[in-house]
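User: structure tokens for this one?
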Amino acid sequence: MRKLIALSLTFVTLFSMFAALVTVCATKNAIRQRVVVTYAIPPQDDSMTNPHYLLLDFHWYTTINYYINTKNKYGFSATAVVNTITTSANTWDQETAYQVFSYKGTTGRNAGRRDGYNVVSWGGYQAGIIAVTYIWYSGSQIIETDCRMNTYYKWSLSGEAGKMDVQNIMTHELGHWCGLDDLYDDVDYWLTMYGYGNFGETYKRTLGLGDINGLEAVYGP
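Assistant:
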């Protein structure tokens, strides 16, 4: 199994690397069986035939007005940052008739604080977490979301080896803004919402069937 780095919402999820685990529990009147399976990573991209998705218990009920803090230490121009992140948002928007995202401009605000603004920015976070999405919600309704790209890592706009690709990671993170949860079974490796990422990775830039199915489950086709 290849070594992967966790993408996280607000927590880190670990998963078993055992091929299969079978547990049997006995009660007074019944014997129950539970089978837990870890699947192999598909050798080729099967994202357009994999229908899997998971939803969060909450989502936006209105169009998401969002802002981008373009400040970075990687030499990226503000225009390049905006173009890349809005491309990630548009990747989701083009798969539904509902307008999920609306870009409102740049900001000096930082992600991670509830302030009435939905912000994407860079900022420090712990090692092992590439990016973190913050969600504030009431009942089943999201009322604010932010995303912080972790400056612990080097970043790229072009899929460079040894660096995290902004469009790749942000397409995944904005899936959480759409109400989708992470997938952690290896069988879902090629989907955008697979919850692990790696240096130089770019395949999450485009959505798979399961990602689109999840989006449409929330917003319709």
